[in-house]
Amino acid sequence: MVLQVYFWALALLLLGASLGVITSRNPVFSALWLVLAFVTSAVLWILLEAEFLAIVLVLVYVGAVMVLFLFVIMMLDIDLDTLKKGFVRFAPVGAIVAFIIAIELVTVFVIRSTGLPVLANPPPHPAGYSNTKELGAVLYTEHVYAFELASFLLLLAIVAAITLTMRRRPGLKRQDIARQVAVQAKDRVRLVSMPVEKD
Q: How far apart are CA 113 and CA 4, in angstroms?
């Protein structure tokens, strides 16, 4: 009973954090809400005895991906007025997607209430069980190509984010290394001969 109350409290917290991600006006606050959603999801993974996935979620997504998100948000100089204009245009599509997700969640709860074993709670693992070993065995044998493809896509996303930050913007000062190296003292310093002044 206590475990179910704890699960529902975490689920409500995760739902609130998810709403904070999409309703926050400041992109930085939205990213911080996403951090809370990731950490809450990690605790839910721990409840399912998937400790390795929970640790990876905190270390990789919260520790690395979210830092990259914040870096991109701060470097891109996002125009909030443009985002607000696009919100009204894409609101119907978002409402349709939200409705489909709600139907799927209701379907899951209805099927779970029928008592089918496909959605039953998993039995606890024995004391010597290692989900890290089992996950590695599946990941690097059956799904090795999908794993390599995902790593390539992440690398491509990092390169694209860096490319977006290097685009030309008005008023942005850039360094010209060749001109800095080729500069001479006579171009920068002017010696002036002045008469000595006496008090």
A: 15
Q: Provide the 3-class DSSP secondary structure of residue 39.
A: helix
Contact criterion met (CB below 8 Å) for 70 and 31 = yes
Burial 95-128 (b: 16+ CB within 10 A, else e): eeeeeeeeeeeeeeeeeeeeeeeeeeeeeeeeee
**pTM for this model (two decimals):** 0.55
How does DSSP classify residue 126? Answer: P
Task: State pLDDT tens for residues 160-187.
Answer: 888 877 766 677 677 788 888 888 877 7
Phi and psi angles of residue 192, each rounded to the nearest 5 degrees, phi first: -120, 130
Helix (H, G, I), strand (E, B) or coil at 26: coil
